[in-house]
Amino acid sequence: MRLLKKILILTLCFLFTFPAAAARAANYTIAPKDTLYSLSKLFNTSVTYLQYSNNVNEKNLIPGEVIYVPAHMYKVKSGDSLYKIAVAYGLSVSALKKANGKTGDLIVPGEKLILPGVKPSENSDHVIPYSSGEVDLLARLIEAEASGESMKAKVAVGAVVVNRVQSGDWASTITGVINQKFGEYYQFTPVKNGMINNTPSDASKKAAWIAMFGGDPSNGAIFYFDSSSTNQWLWSKPKTAWIDHMVFAK
User: What are the start and end residues of each CATH 3.10.350.10 domain in the chain?
Assistant: First the structure.
């Protein structure tokens, strides 16, 4: 019994320390034929790390979904090439292409590239400040707003909250943004109707972490709404993405 308790405690500590360790992670889109083993080699990490930090195994490693990996993010500058970047960081061009889903050599200034196997630096993109309960709050919002949608849509919902925190035009914390009101109007319906208190699924928890680590399928959106909405004010906003039944806008 004591041994079981010890194992449980160690396992819980292991699980809860992974998100913090991955706080400077990069987002990688799973490709066909990827395995946890091949990804662990590409990103110089362990299979166990990838499993626990993304809640995945070989059976649910689905092409097109996003996971986070420990890697440095590099912003392409004028005059860069894949070859020059690879040489500068001691990488092979093929590994650099694989990590970024590229088949050709085209890169453009401002583009962000994952540098596989390169330790994330203090200058890497990282999550906004958060408390231990705020990621859970974000996951509960995602669950309430996008429970029937794809992982991509779930991540996009989380990204809207992150984008608002970063914008300077809304509250400066996750909790503040999600609970924000203007007069009598809640910004997020689940806060008003109580659905924000429902337990989030593992998928929503995963989506929350991916959004926290910079995943943004919404393309910088600060609004989202169902495609069946008749709100003309929302429809008048510049659209940034249309994912499943959800529309994202600025």
Answer: 23-115
Residues of the chain with CATH 1.10.10.2520: 134-249
User: pLDDT band for position 49 (50/70/90)?
Assistant: confident
| DSSP, residue by residue, 146-176 | HTTS-HHHHHHHHHHHHHHHHHSSS-SSHHH
- Contact yes or no for 234/174 (Cβ under 8 A): no
CB within 8 Å of 62: residues ≥ 6 apart:
30
> Residue 243 in 3-state DSSP?
strand
- The pLDDT tens digits of the residues spanning 119-151 come to 765 444 445 788 879 999 999 999 999 998 988
What is the identity of the amino acid at 55?
N
Topology, domain 23-115? Membrane-bound Lytic Murein Transglycosylase D; Chain A (3.10.350)
- Residue with the bigger pLDDT between 33 and 52: it is 33
Q: Residue 240 gets which letter from DSSP?
A: E
What's the token pair of residue 46? 């362990």
Give the CA dihedral 127, 132, 133, 136, nearest 10 degrees: 60
For residue 7, what pLDDT band results from cuts at 50, 70 and 90?
very low
Q: What are phi and psi of 191, to 5 degrees?
A: -70, -35
Q: How far apart are the first and last CA of the chain?
A: 55
Are 153 and 244 within 8 A, CB to CB? yes
- Secondary structure tally for the chain: helices H, strands E: 11, 9
